[in-house]
Write a structure and sequence with these properties.
two-stranded antiparallel ribbon; 2 strands
């Protein structure tokens, strides 16, 4: 096998292609003076994932009759949500 005698070139990135910084970007950026961190970054511009629900659901362990569970599961994807809706309807909430 032949050796590659030429070093690989680093891809050149045009600095003009970088987006303009917004005030939020400057406010949240980490500030360094040389190798010393003056102020750590204060967060990300966008948070990953879904937004936090104002009323998150709680996970519970519940024992059900097999036929009840089979009936809800047979209704297809989203059976847990349908079960929740039925419970709410029965309770009147």
């Amino acid at each position: 096998m032949q050796k590659n005698t030429k070093p690989a070139k680093e891809p050149w990135i045009d600095p003009d292609d970088a987006p303009e910084w917004t005030e939020d970007m400057f406010r949240m950026a980490a500030i360094h003076r040389g190798d010393t961190l003056v102020r750590p970054a204060t967060g990300a511009l966008k948070t990953p994932g879904r937004p936090v629900s104002p009323a998150p659901k709680k996970q519970v362990t519940l024992r059900l009759d097999p036929d009840v569970l089979d009936a809800f599961r047979a209704s297809g994807k989203g059976w847990q949500s349908r079960m929740n809706a039925e419970l709410r309807k029965v309770l009147g909430i």
